[in-house]
Design brief:
This protein is α+β, with helices and mostly antiparallel strands. The protein contains eight helices and six strands. The chain folds into two domains: 85 residues, Winged helix-like DNA-binding domain superfamily/Winged helix DNA-binding domain (Arc Repressor Mutant, subunit A, Orthogonal Bundle), CATH 1.10.10; 76 residues, Alpha-Beta Plaits, CATH 3.30.70.240. The protein has a four-stranded antiparallel beta sheet with strand order 4-5-3-6, with helices on one face. Helix 1 crosses helix 5.
Length: 183
């Protein structure tokens, strides 16, 4: 299966759209997700759709389920969900609003040494998203990112190790404002 831009990838992402809805706290964001899902389904060529679903079925990434009324549903298997989540993770980004709300988002984690790979992966992903490493296990960002952080910590099953703080003041805020190019 081709990864980038393929119809199969689109199908996995669209089927997992419900996962994205589960991680959002914002009704506006939920509406945007539903709207995007609808327009993406319409953009897929029906012949390619059928061929790709068959390929996903053969790869055991989707399964067919027959409903009570005889309607057949295509659902993600466990493996399909994992691949779809990885695609979402690769596309994950924090949106920059038009105006900064003058709040700092602080992510803290305390992950034991026996989970070192989780700690390194989490640290790497936070840096990739543009968060600034404030201390070794403390990251800061000026924009709303709770949904993105929740997605990451749920994906890595790290909820018990991670805390999220929203602050209006940090003693070195001027330095942070310069790092994030804020006025």
């Amino acid at each position: 299966m081709r990864k980038s831009g393929s119809v199969a990838q689109k199908i996995l992402l669209l089927l997992s759209g419900g996962v994205a809805l589960a991680f959002t706290y914002s009704p506006n964001r939920a509406h945007r997700i539903l709207k995007a899902i609808s327009s993406e389904w319409k953009s897929i060529d029906r012949h390619n759709l059928q061929r790709s679903i068959s390929g996903l079925y053969e790869s055991k990434l989707v399964d067919y389920r027959e409903g009570k009324n005889g309607m057949i549903r295509v659902v993600l298997t466990r493996e399909g969900k994992q691949i779809a989540l990885q695609y979402k993770l690769d596309e994950l980004s924090i949106q920059k609003p038009k105006r900064w709300d003058k709040k700092w988002r602080i992510i803290l984690f305390d992950i034991p040494e026996n989970y070192r790979s989780l700690r390194d992966t989490l640290r790497s992903k936070l840096k990739e998203l543009g968060l600034l490493e404030f201390q070794k296990s403390v990251f800061v960002h000026p924009y709303e990112c709770r949904d993105e952080i929740d997605f990451i910590i749920e994906l890595y099953d790290a909820r018990r190790f991670v805390r999220f703080i929203e602050a209006e003041w940090i003693d070195n805020g001027l330095h942070l404002r310069k790092k994030f190019h804020l006025s």
